[in-house]
Amino acid sequence: MSDDPASEPLNRIETLPLGIVVERRASTSPWAEWFWRVAAVIPGAGPVEPPGRVLRAGEGWTHTHAATLELELFRTDTEGYRLNLSQDPPRLWVVLRPDAEGDGMVPVVVTASAHEGEGYQVGMDVVETVPMPPEIAALVRDFVDQHHVDVPFEKRERKRHFDKDGKRGGGPR
């Protein structure tokens, strides 16, 4: 986190760098040469230069430290973190996008919010989940305990579609 509180968004409280380990595996599909998935995260990882540093490899697969992204925790997302922590196991969502050459996938976002993770699944992005390491789960749980505020549900009043005489509308057009 920055030493200057004025430079931080008011809602963001905690950040943690996470190394994103991406697996590239030979595909059996006739439509794709490679299959990509997030294999793991590395809590507290430093920057990776150049991106895509090979960590392990085998016949037809590689694990690379593809990027280091900031896991950001926000006060207004505590409900999404609580939902995630109630799952067994809790997960991190990692958003992957095609790289500039179009032959690989690059991690661009990591989140612990079940709501935010679900929101990314509605587009062209590839969204992968990975089990949340215990030390990150403890950090997220402490964050929720410190910042969560229950907001009571308030039912909204419905708009009238008919005037008091039972006619449709509600005014001149």
TrEMBL record:
Domain of life, per lineage: Bacteria
InterPro entries in the cross-refs: DUF3305
Alphabetized Pfam families for the sequence: DUF3305
Name recorded for this polypeptide: DUF3305 domain-containing protein
Organism name: Azospirillum cavernae
